[in-house]
C-alpha cells in the first residue's frame, strides 16, 4: 500500500493509475481536509466485491471451503463438461 498526498497524485495521475493497474498497488490519497481516498484497479475492486458476495452467504462460503478441502486431500473428481447443442 502506498500513501501519497493529493497534490502529488494530481500532478502524476497517469503514473498512479498505471501503478494501480499494472502493479496492483493500492494507493491511499491523503488530504489535509476531508477523508482520505483509496485508488485501486477495477480488477482489484471486482475481486473485493466478489469475495464480499461469496462470504455474505454462509452456505455458499462453506461449500467453497469444503470443495477446497476435498481438492487438497485428493478427493476431487474430474468431470466432462456437457455442452448444449
Strand and helix map with partners:
Layout: E1 2-5, H1 6-11, H2 13-22, E2 27-30, E3 37-39, H3 42-56, H4 58-72
Parallel strand pairs: 1-2
Antiparallel strand pairs: 2-3
Family: Belongs to the phD/YefM antitoxin family.
InterPro entries: Antitoxin_Phd/YefM, phD/YefM_antitoxin, YefM-like_sf
Function: Antitoxin component of a type II toxin-antitoxin (TA) system.
In total, the number of domains comes to: 2
Mean pLDDT value? 94
Tell me the radius of gyration. 20 Å
Q: CATH superfamily name of the largest domain?
A: YefM-like domain
Number of helices: 4
Q: Identify the CATH architecture of the largest domain.
A: 3-Layer(aba) Sandwich
Broad structural category: alpha+beta
Low-confidence stretches: none
Number of strands: 3
Family: Belongs to the phD/YefM antitoxin family.
Protein name: Antitoxin
Function: Antitoxin component of a type II toxin-antitoxin (TA) system.
Account of the 3D structure:
This protein has 85 residues and is of the alpha+beta class. The protein contains four helices and three strands. The protein has a three-stranded mixed β-sheet with strand order 1-2-3. The protein is elongated, with a radius of gyration of 20 Å. The termini are far apart.
List keywords for this structure.
alpha+beta, three-stranded mixed β-sheet, 85 residues, YefM-like fold
Question: Can I get a quick summary?
Answer:
The protein has 85 residues and is of the alpha+beta class. Helix content is 54%, strand content 13%.
Amino acid at each position: 500500500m502506498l500513501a501519497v498526498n493529493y497534490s502529488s497524485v494530481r500532478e502524476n495521475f497517469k503514473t498512479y493509475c498505471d501503478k494501480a493497474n499494472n502493479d496492483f498497488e493500492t494507493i491511499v490519497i491523503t488530504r489535509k481536509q476531508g477523508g482520505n481516498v483509496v485508488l485501486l484497479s477495477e480488477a482489484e475492486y471486482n475481486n473485493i466485491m466478489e469475495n464480499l458476495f461469496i462470504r455474505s452467504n454462509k452456505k455458499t462460503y462453506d461449500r467453497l471451503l469444503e470443495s477446497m478441502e476435498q481438492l487438497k486431500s485428493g478427493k476431487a473428481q474430474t468431470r466432462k463438461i456437457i455442452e448444449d447443442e
